[in-house]
Amino acid sequence: MVAYILLFVAHSDLKETREEHEYILSRVDAETYKHIKEEFDADNDYQSITKIVYAVNAEPTYSSNPDELFADIKLMAFADGTMDQMEYAIYNSLKKILS
Hints:
- There is one protein chain.
- With 99 residues, the chain is mainly α.
- The chain has one domain (2-98).
- It is 78% helix and 0% strand.
- It has 7 helices and no strands.
């Protein structure tokens, strides 16, 4: 599910940079990325948030230690060198929703 969350953050500014793409591929293999990207592209924002909340609550690693997840999200947001306003807003929104 980490790939889905990272895609959500990467697309918060409506584009996925090469650096963001490479960061996601450093976390998951290419086949997983392709499968998750197809799923992500088919979902709307509500479906994405619902899936993220469900996955984080269902995954003991994330639910018991959200700091690890938020560190990953922050690294994703900075993958292209800066965290723009939309990425910052998504980061803060996810932190509120998932904490």
